[in-house]
Amino acid sequence: xxxxxxxxxxxxxxxxxxxxxxxxxxxxxxxxxxxxxxxxxxxxxxxxxxxxxxxxxxxxxxxxxxxxxxxxxxxxxxxxxxxxxxxxxxxxxxxxxxxxxxxxxxxxxxxxxxxxxxxxxxxxxxxxxxxxxxxxxxxxxxxxxxxxxxxxxxxxxxxxxxxxxxxxxxxxxxxxxxxxxxxxxxxxxxxxxxxxxxxxxxxxxxxxxxxxxxxxxxxxxxxxxxxxxxxxxxxxxxxxxxxxxxxxxxxxxxxxxxxxxxxxxxxxxxxxxxxxxxxxxxxxxxxxxxxxxxxxxxxxxxxxxxxxxxxxxxxxxxxxxxxxxxxxxxxxxxxxxxxxxxxxxxxxxxxxxxxxxxxxxxxxxxxxxxxxxxxxxxxxxxxxxxxxxxxxxxxxxxxxxxxxxxxxxxxxxxxxxxxxxxxxxxxxxxxxxxxxxxxxxxxxxxxxxxxxxxxxxxxxxxxxxxxxxxxxxxxxxxxxxxxxxxxxxxxxxxxxxxxxxxxxxxxxxxxxxxxxxxxxxxxxxxxxxxxxxxxxxxxxxxxxxxxxxxxxxxxxxxxxxxxxxxxxxxxxxxxxxxxxxxxxxxxxxxxxxxxxxxxxxxxxxxxxxxxxxxxxxxxxxxxxxxxxxxxxxxxxxxxxxxxxxxxxxxxxxxxxxxxxxxxxxxxxxxxxxxxxxxxxxxxxxxxxxxxxxxxxxxxxxxxxxxxxxxxxxxxxxxxxxxxxxxxxxxxxxxxxxxxxxxxxxxxxxxxxxxxxxxxxxxxxxxxxxxxxxxxxxxxxxxxxxxxxxxxxxxxxxxxxxxxxxxxxxxxxxxxxxxxxxxxxxxxxxxxxxxxxxxxxxxxxxxxxxxxxxxxxxxxxxxxxxxxxxxxxxxxxxxxxxxxxxxxxxxxxxxxxxxxxxxxxxxxxxxxxxxxxxxxxxxxxxxxxxxxxxxxxxxxxxxxxxxxxxxxxxxxxxxxxxxxxxxxxxxxxxxx
Amino acid sequence: xxxxxxxxxxxxxxxxxxxxxxxxxxxxxxxxxxxxxxxxxxxxxxxxxxxxxxxxxxxxxxxxxxxxxxxxxxxxxxxxxxxxxxxxxxxxxxxxxxxxxxxxxxxxxxxxxxxxxxxxxxxxxxxxxxxxxxxxxxxxxxxxxxxxxxxxxxxxxxxxxxxxxxxxxx
Lengths: 975, 170
Known about the structure:
The complex is a heterodimer.
Chain A: H1 3-23, E1 30-31, E2 48-53, E3 62-72, E4 75-85, H2 98-102, H3 104-107, E5 117-119, E6 125-127, H4 130-147, E7 150-155, H5 160-173, E8 176-177, H6 187-197, E9 202-205, E10 212-216, H7 227-237, E11 244-249, H8 254-258, E12 261-264, H9 270-282, H10 293-298, H11 304-311, H12 319-327, E13 331-335, H13 345-358, E14 366-372, H14 380-391, E15 395-401, H15 405-408, H16 412-415, E16 421-426, E17 438-441, E18 450-455, E19 458-462, E20 467-469, E21 493-494, H17 504-515, H18 524-536, H19 540-547, E22 549-551, H20 563-566, E23 583-587, H21 601-605, E24 619-621, H22 623-628, E25 636-642, E26 645-653, E27 661-665, E28 676-677, E29 682-683, E30 686-687, E31 691-698, H23 725-728, E32 745-750, H24 759-767, H25 775-779, E33 788-793, E34 798-803, E35 822-824, E36 830-832, H26 842-846, E37 853-854, E38 881-882, H27 888-900, H28 913-917, E39 923-927, H29 934-939, E40 944-945, E41 957-960
Parallel strand pairs in A: 7-8, 7-15, 10-11, 10-13, 11-12, 15-16, 16-17, 23-27, 24-26, 32-41
Antiparallel strand pairs in A: 2-3, 3-4, 4-20, 5-6, 5-17, 9-14, 18-19, 19-22, 20-21, 23-30, 25-26, 25-31, 28-29, 32-39, 33-34, 35-36, 37-38, 40-41
Chain B: H1 2-32, H2 43-49, H3 54-57, H4 72-79, H5 87-97, E1 104-105, H6 118-123, H7 128-132, H8 149-158, H9 165-168
Helix pairs in contact in B: 4-5
């Protein structure tokens, strides 16, 4: 080959290749128009909103689902991309917790069960069609009948129409419907209320109306019953300057961290504390309802020394509480969780009820007319009954829906196999499903119709928000097929779920038809609408789908004390001793709740706010105990031996934790070994008298904060510091003064309100397409969160600080960027231009707040997780620095709307994702140039300060430090 | 040895020139060239002979970020009776009766990191042709502007539009 020929070949081949590569059209270059446009107009680039209900936990918060029309497999599909709390909803009034935010990832979870499965002998599964699965189930029901075995039905918390349908399903098939199984059943509280007031219920705690809040053991901001509701109410109550919150606990929770005063007591010593309080109140002049003398006489009568020995605190420390209870007009006492989960848990709950009665809280701030809906939730007694029947091989077919007793309830896993046929229903695999013969995949609530009744007087709707647009049908065939009930959403909801799953209600309806050998008559949607018509009147559907919920008037419903029942309850109370220390407390987790959240990667990625540990399992121990065990450091493994079982965990030193108590979260331990309180059917969360030994191993844990202390840097300003804002501000800039013409976006964060609940972190992750990177990267310090909760534990004070980009006026990150990717925009935003960034990371090194995040890798959203991506945000690629933008996409949308009307953005029109979801209303955002804006007013508060103000960077985030308390908040320590 | 080096360099030099020239030729060719659409739809006929306005089909141009592509039902609104025997309309009817959407190829495309609102530009009074060219004269639609940042900024400067990066970069 000579030179000319060589050149010719090169030229023609490269030209051909270039031409070929240009002319090929990728699928992503195509646009697919609707065949027929949806009747509900969808403007390209604008989201649609639906109202629905969160079912991640039994609280059933109302939510607004933000969804985008995306083209998936050539079909226009409405994909939910963000969940937000619904303003005005009687439960959560606009807030949504960390778990609610993360529940969106359950819809798109790549490990969703995709088809009905049949278990084969070797632990393998065989795929089935739905009809085959129904056939297997009906065969099994028949053969169980022949064998004379009983068929049973067990589900997790179920309310509303689905509960009615299950009842008729069970009736038709002669199934025994067992009380619902919830690992956190609050059965001790319910049992105590039954004894005292004849109500087996959890009342509605009206914190908003109270002026003194006393909580004992209950983590009302984290996990207890309805945390978002309590958070919202707390934020209302704390508007009252005299409002005080005292928290007593044997362990440590975010509620304890947030209260105005926290008392740390010895494990299971609540009966002495509450007994003391009750006596003081009962004998005081301000007692509202008398307590029979016989009860008071049976209460423990301890001298000061014994009291201190048993509780770890001095009697005088309770006097402030007594004082408050006597003086305040509307006090409220909430006792629960760990405090009612010891062997004296029932007594604690009873004492608490008596205090509630004697101080007049019952029928006032504690309201049984709006009780939480736990009517059908059973106790572990019911599970024990089932276990006994299983042991006797009496059970034929067992249906288990949305419940995981195998990993939660004692002994259940060992005998579950004795049922002749097990049918499991869920969205994701769990230990119970792993032992089932048939596994039926459930559609996620965002793919389903339904309703929920979170409280006696509230009905909240569930409507499908993942919708395939039916406009793929040609016009002529429309008309008649649009169901008559297609009211609000004129888009006919095409029930085509992501995977081959079905709505739970449809499964029962189809099974019922199958067993009667009849064709399927109706869908769950029509069943539901008919039920609504019947129960709530014909315009309920129209109303409720628009408003998201309907409140019915609460019946006037007051309770009174059953004096007869109470006498003699405390006979043995004097003889009891507090738990044998040290104890291991197994408590619900803010992130995983009862363990169910562990399957969601986002909930592991967001660190636990108390310890800042993200992935993995650990046991929290007090620094004092760590010292006594041979100077343990974070990550040192210990072995815990007890009569309940042996465990091994790395330790995390938890300041302010009582030195008698070790703490581990439910979900990281198998709670099946827990003892059961035979009186209430609740499990006892303590393992007493444990032996602890250092194993010598060290396990690397992703601990995201460098220190538990501020190291004197003044991140949280001392409330006693009376310097004014001007005195604090130093102007050290060497650059020209920056002028902001129309807007200077700013944020105010009230540390008094912030409870560290981390809902903002989860909201930010989802809103801004922040990747989940996993434990390996976290250990290397490569976390990606744009906002984080920093816990700081000082000698007297401890609190959470949400830390995010401060959008400094004179930002240190900007001048060091060699390519002007980081710059200050005219609206005061510290902007990052992603496609200009070359990844030097100088900006991050120069940031005093350490809020910039670097993409070390290309991050993958595994299908169908990619459908969750917010199209308003660019997905950052490898080598790019990113950080909080103050949700610039929301600012942009608001400005666009304002410009249409030729005006500036009004205060409150821009709400970043973190502020929107905050259950405590701690975050306020706005334009600080507007003197009428809320954020301006807060920035002028005497409590306002800015972190590292002395650097002269002029941050845009104004923190409001806690209200000053006379003698420090922490009274339980060091006595 | 030395002459061989020079020879190699020379060859390299010419090869790179040839590749560059071909590259440019291909680039301009495809950039200016209209892609082959699934249906030979003529903007010229619909705008000039039929006299449709742009927003008859692209009805979100003044409402949303993107102007929207008309639903197939909009096409069928006329074409179930107009020109039904034309080969291109037969293609359209096939899509319609087969309940399939028409897989049009997008011609004017912006990268993912760009926020661009048609609404803002239309409401400001800019004519579609400023960016999209003489669509009225095009039988096959093609891209006439580079749609690159420099081109955007030139216009923003000339019309005193915002030039803050975060106006368009997301």
